[in-house]
Amino acid sequence: MASEIVSAYVSNNAVAAAELPAMIKTMHDTLLSLGGNTEIGKTELDPAVPVKKSITPEYLICLEDGKRLKMLKRYLRSRYNMSPEEYRARWNLPADYPMVAPNYAAQRSQLAKEIGLGQAASSGRRKR
């Protein structure tokens, strides 16, 4: 992080090449003395709800913001520009973590079966 700060400073200010190592060391020491986490992306994530409570029969709860949804995939893409795989990785979720509420998935499955989706073509249809 210190090198990124120094790089930004040097790109906007004239600094002699001989001064760069000392500037980087000073910046690094300053960041360490602040006592904060100097690594980017190492912050602890805190979900909106516990993971176990995020799946209910009627809806899923988004761990990012706590919103209740029947389908999570499209919401993640439009709101956070995140794929289901990225979401699962971010929250350490299993690969089979659902993106659709269980009852809604069952309802859609039943509807698909009723209209004949997923079955082989009937013998009365002409083949191309």
From TrEMBL:
<dbReference type="InterPro" id="IPR041920">
    <property type="entry name" value="ROS/MUCR_sf"/>
</dbReference>
<dbReference type="GO" id="GO:0003677">
    <property type="term" value="F:DNA binding"/>
</dbReference>
<dbReference type="InterPro" id="IPR008807">
    <property type="entry name" value="ROS_MUCR"/>
</dbReference>
<protein>
    <submittedName>
        <fullName>MucR family transcriptional regulator</fullName>
    </submittedName>
</protein>
<dbReference type="GO" id="GO:0006355">
    <property type="term" value="P:regulation of DNA-templated transcription"/>
</dbReference>
<dbReference type="Pfam" id="PF05443">
    <property type="entry name" value="ROS_MUCR"/>
</dbReference>
<comment type="similarity">
    <text>Belongs to the ros/MucR family.</text>
</comment>
<dbReference type="GO" id="GO:0008270">
    <property type="term" value="F:zinc ion binding"/>
</dbReference>
